[in-house]
Amino acid sequence: MHKIGRQTIRFPNPPSISNTASIVGPKEAEGPLKIYFDKVETDDTCGETSYEKAEECICYTAIQTLLQKEKLQATDIDYYLGGDLLNQIISTSFTAQKIAIPFFGLYNACATFSEGMQLAACLVSGQFAKNVIVSSSSHFSSAERQYRSPLESGIQRKMTAQWTVTGSGAVVISNQQKSPYITHITTGIVQDYGVKEADNMGTAMAPAAVETIIAHFNDTGFEPKDYDLIITGDLGTIGKEISMDLLSREGFNVSNIYTDCGVEIFSEEQDTHARGSGAGCSAVVFSGYIYKKLRNKELNRVLFVPTGALLSPTTTLQGDSIPCIAHAVTIENEPQLGRG
Amino acid sequence: MADYFWVFVVGGIICVIGQIIQDTTKLLPAHILVLYVVTGAILTGIGIYPKIVEVGQSGATVPIMGFGYSLAKGAMEAVDKDGFIGAFTGGISATSAGVAAVVLFGYIAAILGNSKTKR
């Protein structure tokens, strides 16, 4: 058994994240992380007739870019794991139909990317696969229609609302000896603290992120100082503040190494209110920004904790609260943590 | 000129109340929309809204509260004319021009335009 504690797995033979690809829309390309992305779609319809088709196009482009970068054919990939935010995860399923790789469709909302990384790491480390692709995607305009209101109704967004990232990130997880490696994973438990506002996701998701981070530290015995960076998925400015506060109350001072993908992807001037969110948010920030920082050794140990709000449009309309989840993945250039 | 002033003030106040509700409560835009229509109808029924319309004119009839006002006013007038059945027919006939215009203009806009991502 390589399981340690209640929620964590330590990989004795850590799988490698051998490459990544990130595709973003025009607004993300105006943000502070613009230089890190592989490709920018300047037209967020991608020349398609609907935003759902546009999202599928972005998802497919990310997979194609990844295969090209890694000089692999689709037939070299054992499994494709992925998901998105649309009903029946259509962007990912339709992409899977085109690329013809054995496919596991996943849904953990905006934590889908780390859910996929965790399962892919298990498949590779358990020697059931050599190369596994994980992707997740989102699109501002398809997500607005899916979760909130059609764009045409011109609803005023609250200041707590976050802006769904248009983009798709994809990674190859393989059994190569190539840094960085996934050395630990901590799988989240669904948390629900009774927040009901679908336009205040950061507040809803923060306790899930904090629970998973604390479970990770408790299971492994690591401390914040073991990491160069702890980065949550898409809590935005409000959720980030709440997480920092909750963690410091629990005795974990992470203030100088902690940030959030949603906060990083947009700047204050872009007027997105509480900054970015969406299944594509943590995926493109990891595949673009974090991965490149890991490869050039500016970062060596990262705890990546995407967060997901597991609501549906129906539960929102019926007045239910928002259950949330977060999955943590430890990524190291040299697998040293927990090895004495 | 005084008319324009009062139209502006009354319309503005109605919108400011909506904005305050939006900013300080957990109500969604759709809740506020329904709340406004119902409030307009009730205020008309108890005789308050017609007085607001007298002062504010289109400042009071153009916002969605004015739709509730037209519904209630139409129903009350039809009851006077046709009796009890007017409560069912009056509201719809009073607002039918607006409703038909919404369907027509919405359809034309959908043919001519495409939805675009907010900037």
Overview of the molecule:
The complex is a heterodimer of chains A (340) and B (119). Chain A has 340 residues and is an alpha/beta fold. Helices cover 34% and strands 22% of the residues of chain A. Chain A folds into two domains: 3-174, Peroxisomal Thiolase, Chain A, domain 1 (3-Layer(aba) Sandwich), CATH 3.40.47.40; 181-332, Stage V sporulation protein AD (Peroxisomal Thiolase, Chain A, domain 1). Chain A has helices spanning 26-29, 51-69, 90-99, 112-125, 140-147, 201-220, 236-249, 261-265, 279-295, 313-317, and strands spanning 3-4, 8-10, 16-24, 39-40, 79-84, 103-105, 131-138, 163-164, 167-174, 181-186, 229-232, 258-260, 276-277, 301-305, 307-309, 324-326, 328-332. In chain A, the strands form four sheets. In chain A, strands 1-2-10-17-14-11-12 form a seven-stranded mixed beta sheet. A six-stranded mixed beta sheet of chain A has the order 4-3-9-7-5-6, with helices on both faces. A two-stranded parallel ribbon of chain A has the order 8-13. In chain A, α2 (51-69) packs across α3 (90-99) and α6 packs parallel to α7. Chain B is mostly helical. Chain B has one domain. Chain B has six helices and no strands. Chain B has helices at 2-24, 29-45, 49-56, 58-61, 65-82, 86-112. The termini of chain B are far apart. The relative contact order of chain B is 0.11. The model of chain B has no long low-confidence stretch (mean pLDDT 94). The chains are: A alpha/beta (340), B mainly alpha (119). Chain A binds chain B through residues 25, 27, 44, 51, 140-141, 149-152, 155-156, 158, 166, 196-197, and chain B through 22-23, 26, 29-30, 115-118.
